Amino acid sequence: MVDVPAPPLRPWADLDADLISCIGDCCVLTDYASCLAVCAAWRSALPPPLSLPLAVLPADAAAGHPAVSVAACFLRARRWSRLPGLRCPTALIGGAAASCRCVGARDGWIALVATAAADGGALLFNPFTGTEIPLHASLYDPARDAVAAPKIVFSPDPTPRDFAAVSVTRPNRIAVQRAADGYSDSVVEYTNHLMDGADLVDVAYGGGGKVYCLAKGGEVYVLRLKRRRRRGAPWLPALEVGPLHRAPLGADAFPAPYNVISQHTDAKNLLLYDGALYQVWRRPTGAGSVTVDTPAAGGKRWVRISEGDVFVLRYEPGRWPRWAVAEWKKDLGGNAVFVGSNDAAVVRGEGVSVNSVYYWDNPPEGGHEPVVFNMATRASVRWPAVATGGTSSPVWYISPAATDEEATCEETACPEYDDEHSADM
C-alpha cells in the first residue's frame, strides 16, 4: 500500500473572508487583536473594534475594572469585551470614578455623573485623551432616575472654555450650562411658561447652538443657546425658546393614524441626520399590545400597536401635516439608527444590521439590554441573542474617527422655526 501524501495546508492568507469573519466574531477583544496580527488578509477581513457597536459599561472592581469603560460586542462571542488602555476619570469628587454612570455620549465624549451615594458631581470625559470638563451640579438630579434614564447632551468638540450642556432634570425642568471665552453660567428653567407646560422626554443638540426638546405628545421646542457675549458684558445672552411649529386650530401635526399612535408610544427620541429632524417612537416593554381606533386613517380604522413596535417620522417644514413617515432607504440610506441616552446617530458598517433601530430595553432582572428592531420585518430581537448581564446605562458609544457614520446635523443646516411663526419669537 502506497501512502498518499496529505495535501499541503492552505496559507492563512488564503482562507475565505467569511470564514475569517466568523473566527473573529467568536473572539473576545484580546483574541481579536491576535487575529488582526495574523496577516494583511485577515486585517482586511476583520473590522476594527471601534467600528463595532460599543456600549459604556459600569465599573467592576472585582474583575479589575475600577471605572466605567467602553466595550465592544462581538456577535458570536455574545458578550461585551472592554477596550483596554482607555483613560479613567479623576475629577469626580471623593474618588467616585468607581461609582459613576454614563448619562450621555457623542463624538467620542461621554457625560458622567456620580451616584447619589458618592455625591461626586458631573463631568464631560474623553476616554481616549483623558480630557475632563467639570459640569454644574444642576445638570443632574438623582430624582430623575425614578422617572426615566437621565440624559445630558452637549456641544461638539467641547473645551473647558467653550462648551454648552443641556439636560432634562425633571419632566418639566431643563438645566443649561454655557461657557464662552472663559465665562460660564448655568440656568434652570421650568417648562410652564417656556414650553406650554410640556413634559419633556428627550433632547438633541443640533447645529448653530440649537437644542431640540421633545415633549411626551410629540411636540418639539427649539432652545437657542447664544454663547457670544457683547463686548465688555460680564454675562452671556438670555436663552430663547419657541415651538418648532404651530398647528392651525384643530389640526394635527401628525398624519393619521400617527396622530393616535403618538398617544400610545411613550418611548420617544429625537434624531438629527443630514440636515433633517426625525422622531423615533416606541411602545415600551411592559406596556403590552393595544388596538386603537383611528377613524381618520382611511380604510383601516383599527390599528394594532404591539409591544416593542417602532415608528420613525421625518419633519417636513414645507407641508402639512408637518411630520411624515420616514422612507428608510431614501431618507436614512437603509442604515441603522442608535437611540438611547446618547445623541441618536445613523451608522453603517460591519456588524450593524441595516434598516434597523437599536435601542435599550429594561429586562426584569434590572440594567439595560440592547434590542434591534427591523423596520422591514417589524420584528425585534435581543442583541446579541443571549443575556449579556445588562449595562447600567442605556448609552451607545459612537466613535466618529473609526465608524462609517453619515453626516449629522452639525455639518448641515438644521430645521428652524416655521417662517410664518418666527415673528412670534
UniProtKB/TrEMBL annotation:
Lineage of source species: Eukaryota, Viridiplantae, Streptophyta, Embryophyta, Tracheophyta
InterPro entries for this protein: KIB1-4_b-propeller (IPR005174)
Domain of life: Eukaryota
Residue ranges occupied by any KIB1-4 beta-propeller domain in the UniProt entry: 90-374
Protein's name according to its UniProt entry: KIB1-4 beta-propeller domain-containing protein
Protein source organism: Urochloa decumbens
